[in-house]
């Protein structure tokens, strides 16, 4: 009996367990999934919780419920991978798991401790993340009592999970304060390490003035040097200081600590991975899905879904000793909530930036690309159903795996 | 001395094709940006070029400061007004961008 070991039971790990359970011969292969906790969070929903659009219980389910019954599920922290020995050491009881093939699906987490002063007095008092369940639920409580003042939003450094989340957060904040009738008493400031809110030519052209119209001030090229929570000030290396009443942060995003301990990661503990085959650069029997990889694709669940087709085929090719497919094109497809019941949709890959046009989808489409519409917002809300019922179960989605130019205006 | 007019730059002054870059061109771009290149600038430029060759994109500030002996404060003094962008520009690489 051979072992297919999957580290991480989030979006990528769960959908691959479902796909491989159908494709690997159950007489020859046992599939094992390890995760540090039992709860599966619908992470795209974290964005909506602060504004009361989703309740916390809307985003929480049990991981086990989404894994096939013949897959073994182990709840434990991971100490390290020993790739030369083809084994993984768990923290729980120092258990050792040998594998024939390994899939790393342990995603990325926030590291507020990487920013000087971030975890001092203000953390989860008037400084919040919304990339964790604890952070987003605490922020929702804070916002209920926030009646006026300056909200500063900061992205510490790239890359981050869901790179459009800052835009969505700011536009939903505008919508939220309008709904509460206090928009004129709240200042919204978006401090980004990039040169602006939109950095691609076609997006800048189509959406350039969008945040301005909503009264959202951009502080570009803001490389955070530290937070002084005694003075409520966030500062940058070039000497700028922004005072805040509420600081919402996306701290440094890093891969799992055990990737670093195993000597398998880059500076941010992301695993060097072939961007077209999704095989780890150094180990032919190790594969990487989603946020854990260092590939220059967006860190998002939809991307993990598109990667899973290439991965499934390549894993089977590798087991049979066949040549690999270089089929993953960096395809990403993201709804961007823009508030007031509307959303945008972008669709792009490694080589093609988000373009305007239409995006064909059976039944409810077509959606408009790089442009606000009401139907795009419905698409975003329908995505939660697709996530639990199609994506994590490894079922086909009504969209193509590779990006298509159909409907796009180049 | 190379002539900047022999090369194609985008509207913001970044070299369109990073593969046409030469160390002489770095001198010329630096002059245009009022930066006087020293040995310390070259530590950053050479590292950035190496990262580009290996990964196809310009390195992040963290990547530069972790893998060279240049720290963040020094980077800002070497390339005032945004070292990520300026170092990429002088090294003939594209500006760091988001997905949109």
Report on the structure:
The complex is a heterodimer of chains A (410) and B (100). By secondary structure, chain A is of the alpha/beta class. Chain A is built from eight helices and 24 strands. In chain A, the strands form eight sheets. Chain A has a five-stranded parallel beta sheet with strand order 5-2-1-9-20, covered by helices on one side. Chain A has a five-stranded parallel beta sheet with strand order 11-18-12-13-14. Chain A has a three-stranded antiparallel beta sheet with strand order 6-7-8. The longest helix of chain A has 20 residues, at 301-320. Chain A starts with a strand and ends in a 19-residue tail after the last helix. Chain B has a single domain, classed as Arc Repressor Mutant, subunit A (Orthogonal Bundle), CATH 1.10.10. Chain B has five helices and no strands. Chain B has helices at 23-32, 39-55, 61-67, 72-78, 83-90. The chains are: A alpha/beta (410), B mainly alpha (100).
- The assigned structural class of chain A equals alpha/beta
What number of domains of chain A? 3
Across the major sheet of chain A, the strand order is 5-2-1-9-20
Tertiary shape of chain A: globular
Helix content of chain B: 40-55%
Q: What's the helix count of chain A?
A: 8
- Largest interface, chains and sizes: A-B, 29 and 23 residues
**Which H/E pattern describes the elements of chain B?**
HHHHH
Q: Could you tell me the CATH topology label of the largest domain in chain A.
A: FAD/NAD(P)-binding domain
In short:
The complex is a heterodimer of chains A (410) and B (100). Chain A is an alpha/beta fold and 410 residues long. Chain A is 23% helix and 26% strand.
Features:
A: 410 residues, 5-stranded parallel β-sheet, B: 100 residues, mainly alpha, Arc Repressor Mutant, subunit A, 5 helices, globular
Strand and helix layout:
The complex is a heterodimer of chains A (410) and B (100).
Chain A (H helix, E strand, L loop, with lengths): L1 E6 L3 H13 L5 E7 L3 E3 L18 E3 L9 E4 L2 E5 L4 E4 L5 E3 L2 E4 L3 E4 L15 E2 L4 H12 L4 E7 L9 H15 L6 E6 L9 H7 L2 H4 L2 E4 L4 E5 L4 E4 L4 E3 L2 E5 L1 E4 L1 H5 L24 E3 L12 H20 L11 E8 L2 E7 L8 E3 L7 E3 L4 H18 L19
Parallel strand pairs in A: 1-2, 1-9, 2-5, 9-20, 11-18, 12-13, 12-18, 13-14
Antiparallel strand pairs in A: 3-4, 6-7, 7-8, 10-19, 15-16, 16-17, 21-22, 23-24
Chain B lengths: L22 H10 L6 H17 L5 H7 L4 H7 L4 H8 L10
